[in-house]
Amino acid sequence: MRDSILAAGAIVTIGALAGTGFVIQSAVTAQNERIAETAALTNSRGLDAEHLQHASTVLDARAAQKAEITLADASAAIAAAAGKTDAAALETTVASLAQHDLLAPKRIFLLSEQAAEQAAAVKAATAEADRIAAEAAAAAAAEAAAAEAAAAEAAASASVGASRPTAPSNPSEAQAIARDMMAANYGWGDDQFGCLVALWNKESGWNVNAYNSSSGATGIPQALPGNKMASAGADWQTNPATQIAWGLGYIANRHGSPCGAWEHSESSGWY
């Protein structure tokens, strides 16, 4: 039986030499490799023809199945890598393995192993590229969000600034006292002075003797009750500087600044 198999191999080999097509040569080469593998299996295990044919069929089926599974996985890896990493080596191996019906099982298994290793490397490189891209996208999104928030804050500040009262060019005597006092004691400039002038114009008209009979609020800052201003001086009832000193302290503690007090007054009607 072994001599018959070897003779068949010789006949096929002669036919291959006579042919000129690449596909025919590949098929013949694969057939010869199968014959050689079969002969080796016969010698090592002493199989008869029927068992030998069965073993060869099973081996071919397993090789084909291995090739198809490997090709599917490798093709998916190549598709995922598009535009992200180099998969040229894997593509070359896949092209060879795709001709598995012309290859001997041993060659199929070798190519499958090679393709699997290359696919693993391509997948790792693709995952790294995806990670870098995701981090870059997150950073860009955070930067855009920060820029948007800054723009919104700037717009809000501009809107508030545009609606704030401006400082008078010729302040009254009491207003001049307040301007000097707020600059010296709190570091507030003309932007805050404009808010203060508007606030106390609304509250008392800067009248040291102003009195609200409904609430009992008194003086320039409309302290409630009026005797609270005694903490700034015993002459709180008649001295605008004493009333202003108390009023500025109240504003700083309660609203942070004259413009803060003005905005609160505009929204709620009191400060």
Topology:
Elements lengths: L1 H17 L3 H24 L3 H33 L6 H10 L7 H59 L9 H14 L3 H14 L36 H15 L3 H11 L3
Helix pairs in contact: 1-2, 3-4, 3-5, 4-5, 6-8, 7-9
Organism: Agromyces atrinae
Protein name: Lytic transglycosylase domain-containing protein
Keywords:
271 residues, mainly alpha, 2 domains
Q: What does this 3D model show about the protein?
A:
This is Lytic transglycosylase domain-containing protein. It comes from Agromyces atrinae. By secondary structure, the chain is mainly α. It has helices at residues 2-18, 22-45, 49-81, 88-97, 105-163, 173-186, 190-203, 240-254, 258-268. Residues 1-24 have low confidence and may be disordered. Helix 3 runs parallel beside helix 5. It folds into two domains: 55-145; 153-268, no CATH class.
Our count of domains comes out at 2
User: Rounded to an integer, what's the Rg over CA atoms?
Assistant: 47 Å
Q: How much β-strand is present in the residues?
A: under 5%
Compute the average pLDDT. Answer: 84
Number of strands: 0
**First CA to last CA: what distance?**
112 Å
General form:
rod-shaped
H/I helix tally: 9
- Sheet with the most strands, sense and barrel status: none
Helix percent band: over 70%
Secondary-structure element series? HHHHHHHHH
Q: Runs with pLDDT <50, length 5+? A: 1-24
Query: Structural class, judged by helices and strands?
Result: mainly alpha
Organism: Agromyces atrinae
Protein name: Lytic transglycosylase domain-containing protein
